[in-house]
């Protein structure tokens, strides 16, 4: 079972690839995502047991050195983060829509985890910085009150970092909009 997630963002694609290779060799972790991002950044997302993920992230930070933009470990990540990262969630009914736009890919994953733990919501997707100028966003759904609560909790918990750009809650999104978002 995937219990924790490690996230690293690099300002060098080459250094990101090198560090990712070292991380995978240093600990028993699974690679979730390893990809270039706009504008010329690189992100690596790993999962596994907490100790292994922490060890791999530490290795990545060492190899990445001055090329590390940010790194973070979420020790007890919500299990629904993984399908949201790969856009493989299966949700039949979308009664309301919450959108949280962030300054970085890492913050969007943190926001998704916070939202899932804050209220009875489902993540539709966590979009990490591909074609977004380094930004990220999450799409979540559930009953309107739960979505509002999850969004407010994210705003509150991440306000000090200044990494949330904008949040929106739509009570009854148009049926024509939803397929275009996913």
UniProtKB/TrEMBL annotation:
Entry keyword Iron-sulfur: no
Q: Which domain of life is it from?
A: Bacteria
What species is this protein from?
Marinisporobacter balticus
Check the record and name the InterPro entries matching this protein. Answer: BMC_dom, BMC_shell, CcmK-like_sf, CcmK/CsoS1_BMC, Micro_shell_prot_PduT
Annotated SUPFAM superfamilies: CcmK-like
Keyword Flavoprotein assigned: no
Which residue numbers delimit the BMC domain?
4-86, 96-182
Primary localisation category: other
Similarity comment: family membership:
Belongs to the bacterial microcompartments protein family.
The identity of this protein, by name, is: Microcompartment protein CcmL/EutN
Which cellular component appears as one GO term in the record?
bacterial microcompartment
**Keywords associated with the record:** Bacterial microcompartment
UniProt subcellular location: Bacterial microcompartment
| One Pfam family recorded for the sequence | BMC
């Amino acid at each position: 079972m995937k219990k924790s997630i490690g996230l690293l963002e690099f300002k060098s694609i080459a250094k990101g690839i090198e560090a990712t290779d070292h991380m995978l060799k240093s600990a028993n972790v699974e690679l979730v995502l390893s990809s270039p991002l706009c504008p010329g950044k690189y992100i690596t997302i790993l999962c596994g047991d907490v100790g292994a993920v922490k060890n791999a992230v530490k290795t990545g930070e060492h190899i990445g050195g001055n090329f590390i933009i940010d790194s973070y470990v979420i020790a007890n990540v919500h299990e629904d983060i993984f399908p949201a990262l790969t856009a493989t969630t299966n949700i039949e009914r979308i009664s309301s829509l919450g959108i949280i736009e962030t300054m970085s890919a890492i913050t969007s994953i943190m926001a998704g985890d916070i939202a899932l733990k804050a209220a009875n919501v489902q993540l539709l997707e966590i979009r990490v910085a591909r074609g977004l100028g380094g930004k990220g966003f999450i799409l979540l759904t559930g009953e309107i009150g739960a979505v509002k609560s999850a969004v407010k909790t994210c705003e509150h918990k991440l306000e000090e970092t200044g990494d949330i750009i904008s949040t929106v809650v739509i009570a009854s999104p148009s049926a024509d909009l939803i397929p275009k978002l996913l």
